[in-house]
Specification:
97 residues; alpha+beta; five-stranded antiparallel β-sheet; 2 helices
């Protein structure tokens, strides 16, 4: 899986805490190679509203798991859809996993 960490959970003194934010899984059509995986991960990971992203490249899945920086809502869905579309892939909405 290609993962783009966008933020660091550790504090300046070196202590770390668990991130309690829930993840959201989206379906993206056309992700069939490591290159495609990287393009989608970079596009979604570049959004300020995304804390982390993982993209599965296994044939037929096209699952993109997003850890939002704040609440996962329709506005986040729209931003993810736009980033995916601009990267040249087909956003298919939230996935049922």
């Amino acid at each position: 899986m290609w993962e783009v960490p966008v933020s660091n959970c550790c504090t300046p003194d070196g202590s770390c805490h668990a991130d309690a934010r829930a993840t959201v899984v989206y379906k993206v059509e056309g992700v069939g190679s490591a290159h495609c995986q990287g393009v989608v991960a970079d596009a979604v990971g570049a959004l300020d509203e995304v804390a982390a992203v993982e993209v599965e490249v296994e044939i037929g899945t096209g699952l993109v798991t997003v850890t939002p920086a704040a609440a996962a809502d329709e506005a986040l869905d729209a931003l993810i859809a736009e980033a995916v579309d601009e990267a040249g892939y087909d956003f298919a909405g939230r996935a049922t996993v």
